[in-house]
Amino acid sequence: MIVAVSDSGPWLVVGLGNPGPQYAGNRHNVGAMVVDELARRAGSALRTHKARAHAAQVRIGTGPSGVPGPAAVVAVPSCYMNESGGPTKALLSFFSVPAERLVVVHDELDLEAGTVRLKRGGGEGGHNGLRSISSSLGTKDYHRVRVGIGRPPGRMDPADFVLRDFSPTERKELPFLLDEAADAVEQLVTLGLLEAQQRVHAPR
């Protein structure tokens, strides 16, 4: 018998970023922005959690016949990016979510700005947040929603680029990007990875 994705227990969706208002508009914080959008859609707000995170229990997306989608915890670690693994592991344990039902939303230098891609497993591509999570969990086999921010112009250091705010031009497009990435998370947890990839990766 084929069991629907939504029948297999809750999900944990973690959006990566750095804490504090000075980082809030950085490209590196786009994962956290997507989780804020998911919480907004669910009519909820992130609240402080003892796992060094801000989290909310929600329903994500809409299932068949308009019923609420799968149960999920959406969260943003309240520590710096390179310490994201500890809070993520603690949240998985607290809410009894297996690593295969973890979705990490993060910025991706190797994708054109405005592009959203889904995958499971693979390397971290130099991303300190992913590296910390993989190290803490002892596995790389979790889902990722990769939000493209593009490569830095000229000879700018990638570390400087990701820690700068989106440009005025990018900020105009940012609401659409956050919407698309939040849609991708919803499709991943309601439809499963393969069908979600077919939809999200389809040519526009």
TrEMBL record:
The record marks 107 as: Stabilizes the basic form of H active site to accept a proton. PROSITE patterns: PEPT_TRNA_HYDROL_1 (PS01195), PEPT_TRNA_HYDROL_2 (PS01196). It is found in: Cytoplasm. CDD domains: PTH. Monomer. GO terms for molecular function: peptidyl-tRNA hydrolase activity. This is Peptidyl-tRNA hydrolase. Its EC number is 3.1.1.29. It catalyses: an N-acyl-L-alpha-aminoacyl-tRNA + H2O = an N-acyl-L-amino acid + a tRNA + H(+). The keyword Hydrolase applies. NCBIfam families: pth. It comes from Phycicoccus sonneratiae. Catalyzes the release of premature peptidyl moieties from peptidyl-tRNA molecules trapped in stalled 50S ribosomal subunits, and thus maintains levels of free tRNAs and 50S ribosomes. Hydrolyzes ribosome-free peptidyl-tRNAs (with 1 or more amino acids incorporated), which drop off the ribosome during protein synthesis, or as a result of ribosome stalling. The record marks 18 as: Discriminates between blocked and unblocked aminoacyl-tRNA.
